[in-house]
Amino acid sequence: MPRRDFLLVATPGAGKTAFALTIAAELLARREIAAVTVVTPTEHLKHQWAEAAHRLGISMDSGYRNAQGRVSADFTAVAVTYAQVAAHPALHRQRTENRRTLVIFDEIHHAGDALSWGEAVRESFEPARRRLGLTGTPFRSDANPIPFVTYVEEPEGARRSTSDYVYGYGPALGDGIVRPVIFLAYSGEMRWRTRAGDEIAATLGAPMTSEQLAQAWRTALDPQGEWVARVIEVADRRLTEVRRGMPDAAGLVIAGDHADARAYAALLRRVTGARPVIVLSDDPSASRKIAAFASSDDRWMVAVRMVSEGVDIPRLAVGVFATSVSTALFFAQAVGRFVRARRRGETASVFLPSVPVLLGYAAELEAERDHVLRRPDDDPERELAEAQRQRDTPDELGEAPFTALGASAHFDRVLYDGGEFGASAEEDDFLGLPGLLEPEQVALLLRKRQADQLRKRSGAASAASPASAGAASAASVPVSGSSPRPARETLAALRKELNGLIAAWHHRTGQPHGVIHAELRRACGGPPLPEATAEQIRARIGMLRRWASSGR
To answer: Rounded to an integer, what distance in angstroms lies between the CA atom of residue 292 and that of residue 470?
Structure first.
């Protein structure tokens, strides 16, 4: 008997829709099935599936409503949302029982969004002749099982999902199916006032509690602060450079809520002189706006969640991650909006805050993660997510949990292919990267530009040393409390040594580079690497060597 369930895990942009519809067309042609049901996370994706099905000769009703009951005989297929299924599982079970049906679950992890959704999906589609699950992100941040997915027991008691075929970002990049993604991280000084009245200042990305990190992060995203304005400005400069090779390239700002989205749109209008497209999750015209933007030459779109998953706008090439959503699921889906390649050589650039959890996700882009069922209190993402949710739950007096006072911005680093660049280079070296490069060329150019900056700075330091030596010999008594600054070449060499050790530790443990940096800073203290002194870097090198020798 043919197997009924198949789970495909493929990186966003790899062509899951085309794969599934090709399978559907083949099964229809063989008369193994007589109908197709596609289940999607959003209304917009229903219409996107119907358009793709039409190109393969499959008539799909994307306007189906539960109140209709029966589907018109003009349609072989129907598209529904997970919410529709949960609202009337008996109806969808009857539809499935009446005809030999292939059910395609688009982003099947959404079947675990709520326990009731999972139960409804199981009840509705248990009688299906075949079931095809699709996902680009096979993991969740809770313990709700995903229906029709096989789990295996692990030694520590968790259960891990198993997929039938995996096509990850790394292989897709090698095949030229997706674009290489360059992450540009920005730090800065954040100031905010707690509800107790205390004023706190901290560097974004510095070691702090989960609650403080959440508040610093949201301070950075405050539309009234400098951080967002600065990052939007440099992202637009990057888009201009990318458009030299991709004339229709577009940018997307992913906002956290409607108010921020409108404020970011106003900032973009001041920077570019043009009004960006705004897409909000409750906007009834959202699908029309997305479709119009996809085929236009407009530079920027601002969206709240609506464009974070599944939406196909291949010309998106520059992104700003301006939301405090901290789950790996959301981050992977958001980045997936920028990786859809149309021809070889296209690159994507994503600007993000220097927050350790995001830097870790960026470093892990090529990793495939299976869905692991754990108890909720075992979830490593839950603590930060809970701190983020505090923005929506003010205290009984109606006071906000904190008040943003100010946020500066400065370039921190570039992350690409598991490596970090920028500790000694200038921001413009990376903003000016060509928009058309092969993956190997991206890595080569990043290394070359950083090396060029190191040589320039070393040369400047060497040229200044004779004068410094003369001044030192002329002074018979050193000034009290003064100390000579470390030579730039010494700092460069120490940073290179530390980054090399971190890369080796990453390969040994699998920890992301950003996470290792953050742990070293927690253990040794001090600012981010670009601001650290020679002694602080030596302390981190020594700590990392002790970890290695102790078998930590």
So the answer is: 67
d(CA 415, CA 450): 13
Within 8 A by CB and 6+ apart from 327, the residues are: 141, 381, 385
The matching CATH number, chosen from 3.40.50.300, 3.90.1570.10, 1.20.1250.20, 3.20.20.70, for 173-440 is 3.40.50.300
DSSP code of 6?
E
State pLDDT tens for residues 167-177: 888 888 888 88
Domain boundaries, the chain: 5-167, 173-440, 487-552
Buried b (16+ CB within 10 A) or exposed e, 486-507: ebbbebbebbeebbebbeebbe
User: What's the CA gap between 15 and 315, in Å, rounded?
Assistant: 15
Residue 286, CB half-sphere, CA atoms under 13 Å: how many? 20
- The full DSSP string for 134-203 is EES----SS-PPPTT-EEEE-TTS-EEEE-SEEE-HHHHHHTTSB--EEEEEEE-EEEEEETTS-EEEEE
As a CATH number, domain 5-167 is 3.40.50.300
Q: Helices marked H in 191-278 — which ranges?
A: 210-220, 226-242, 258-272
Q: Helix, strand, or coil here: 317?
A: strand
DSSP string, 462-503: HHHHHHHHHHHHH-SSPPTT--PPPPHHHHHHHHHHHHHHHH
Average pLDDT over residues 418-446: 65
Pick from 88, 80, 92: nearest CA to 41: 80
Q: Given a cut of 90, is residue 128 above it in pLDDT? A: yes
Q: Provide the residue type at 136 as one letter.
A: G
Three-state DSSP at 456 gives helix
- Given a contact cutoff of 8 angstroms between Cβ atoms, the answer to whether 405 and 199 are in contact is yes
Name the pTM for this structure: 0.69
Distance CA 361, CA 419 (A): 13
